[in-house]
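To assess whether ligand presence alters the predicted conformation, the chain was also submitted together with inosinic acid. Input:
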Amino acid sequence: MEKLITEEEIKKRVKELGTEITNDYSGTVPVFIGVLKGVLCFLPDLLRNVSLTVEMDLVNVSFYHGKKKPGMPFLEREIAMDIKNRHVILVDDILDTGNTLRFLTQRIKKKKPADLSICILLKKEKQREIEIHADYIGFSIPDKFVVGYGLDYQERFRNLPFIGIMD
Ligand code: IMP
Ligand code: MG
């Protein structure tokens, strides 16, 4: 497997993102909403670098199979917290097609947060039909399939401390 981003580079960048969020949200108690399972490594590392009082929730997005609504996203785990009038930061592992984040931002906006920003570890450099603006981006990467640091291939490799390109 080819290493794309080392453990040290991830650590440094996550710390920078935490500092940025700390400055931007100073004086507030933001709510972080993490998307399972890919955010498993990124979210806790990020939160440890945010020097604010924070709250946190997790969601789990799945996609319908079969005839009824194939490919349509749905929430396997709902947002349990009341986020009305709260400052929400949606955290995901990677922006690929933008499907997941579009679905989630629409869902979250219906709950009337004070504001919503998006924080992603990785953004694939590619043409996207769905335009998603991410406010915090760890790394822009080539349009390749990557694993490690929470990202999987068929549920494996999430535990790699670096990010690698699958061959
Ligand atoms: P979307 O295509 O932007 O909706 O991304 C959906 C999800 O697919 C992401 O949250 C990841 O969990 C997964 N995904 C997309 N690209 C990769 C990849 O290169 N490696 C591992 N998972 C990926
Ligand atoms: Mg994901």
